[in-house]
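This part of the workshop introduces the protein records we will be handling. A record pairs a protein's sequence with a compact description of its fold. Comparing a sequence with its tokens is the quickest way to learn the format. To make this concrete, we reproduce a full record directly below:
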Amino acid sequence: MLKSLLLLFLNSFKTRSQLRLENIILRKQIEILKRTNPKLQIKRSDRLVFSIMKNLLSDWKEKIFIVKPETVIKWHRDAFRSYWRRKSRHKDGRPKLDREVIDLIRQIANENPLWGVPRIH
């Protein structure tokens, strides 16, 4: 009873955005628990919500009760690593030339056998 009153008192000092974020994370956990599968299935989108909330809520460890905080930290690291891996991925080389340009280069090379690559370039 005393703990509930203390929590009510402390929650009155939280901002609206903090309360909304808490509400989101608690609703997400309820949504996960309501799924019909007997084994707890946490989707990629759920993991993303938890890892985002980790950065937005200061007391996120107290609000998550269906997984360990270490698990959320691991998901966050994995998401961060995946993001930078995709962002830094190289494109597949030089853009392709149009068929007309390739035909023109071949025509010039055939008509001028003494010209080398630098001159045709």
In short: The helical segments are 2-11, 16-34, 44-56, 60-63, 69-87, 99-111, 117-120. The two ends are 83 Å apart (CA to CA). Residues 11-86 form one domain. The longest helix spans residues 16-34.
